[in-house]
Amino acid sequence: MDIFRVKSLHKYVKETLPSLKFDKIHVGSLEGFTPPSVLVGEYNYPKISVGVMFSAESNSQVLNSPNFWIKNNYTVSKIFSLRRGLVNAKSRFSVYEPDTDKLQKIQLTSMSQNEVKIGLELSRVYNYYFKSKDIGVYGKSAEMEKLSFNDNVKIQKPIETVYYDRDLKASDGIINLYSSGIGENKISDVLSLGAMGTKRKMVPTKWSITAVDDTIGKKLISEVKGFEEGENYILKSGGILGNHFTFLFLKGEWSFELIEVWNNNSKLFIGDGDYELYEGRKTYASNTAGGYYAVRLAVLEELKRMKRQFSVVVIREITPEYFVPLGVWVVRESARAALKGDAKAFDGLKQLIEAANISTLYLKDIHERSKLLKIIRNQRRLYDFS
User: Fold this and answer.
1) Whole-angstrom Cα distance, residue 222 to residue 252?
2) Per-residue pLDDT averaged across 68-86, rounded?
3) What is the per-residue pLDDT for 358?
């Protein structure tokens, strides 16, 4: 069933949540429901765990639906509780594993459009829950010996096309799916299971998330560089799920910087940011990691909508509301939500900074840490500071 058509979904979640503790999960044969969702681990690469995420309850799609959570104003606590209702049924593979029957079934699961009822044979169940700032959280995990389908798998046409086209590069497949309206999370699942590209191999989910955001971002950068430079300085701010963003759109050619600030009410901590100039980066953004590419993607989508290029400095403030990591998708969607807000335009950089919704407690530190602000302040365009 498509969860977006279930009128009483909120009532369903409220009534069903207590049973999502999975007291019924045990070693042996059982049936479950996958949202669909998969998880490819990175530990012990290239011999890794590949898991199918499943629930004991039907309507499992609610456990893996960021867009739905955002649309219905779910809190961090509620999403955390829902995610703990997923079990990761995993098996061990080499990333170069040939197309075995079990792997093909997991690939089909990753590509499915709707919830799939599955049969599982579990050999061991672990009772702790997992959390990662890139992937998010889920409940128990288990060792999976066998997987079978008790439903028909329905695959969207764009995904099916990419899957069967073995002459299509993975980067082109990512762009094709994005252009067809397929969400980044789904594209990441398909990529991580080695279900696209000319030389196919599995990619840990953590890596595939960043690869998708980075690949789409680079495509958009090539388009944005063809636009005229913006005529004003622009300020935007906002956010959701305990992530607040301040966007400073600075006059000039394309460049980008992300600085992260942690706010625990009593103390602020400013981390080292990452940035790129017009020529781009040659190394991984290790300070802000996957969040860098997620926010950059949101910014580039906004520049494409504006049909202008800017140098953009972004401050991400992580508040106490975001008490548990839910995954990189939160960073991307929070940035997108913030960019939908009202824009304020200014003639000079000084006025922009003064109007920015940045706490005076760390405004000076932001100035000192920002590489792009330093570059712009040192440029011989003094009229910008009038």
Assistant:
1) 16
2) 93
3) 59
Instruction: Give the pLDDT confidence score for residue 269 in this predicted structure.
Output: 86
| CA distance linking residue 261 with residue 312, whole number of Å | 17
Q: What is the pLDDT of residue 364?
A: 65
Provide the Cα torsion 8, 60, 336, 315; round to 10°. Answer: 120
> pTM of the prediction?
0.90
pLDDT digits (tens, 9 = 90+) for 31-63: 999 999 999 999 999 999 999 999 988 888 999
**Residues 121 and 26 sit within 8 Å (Cβ to Cβ):** no
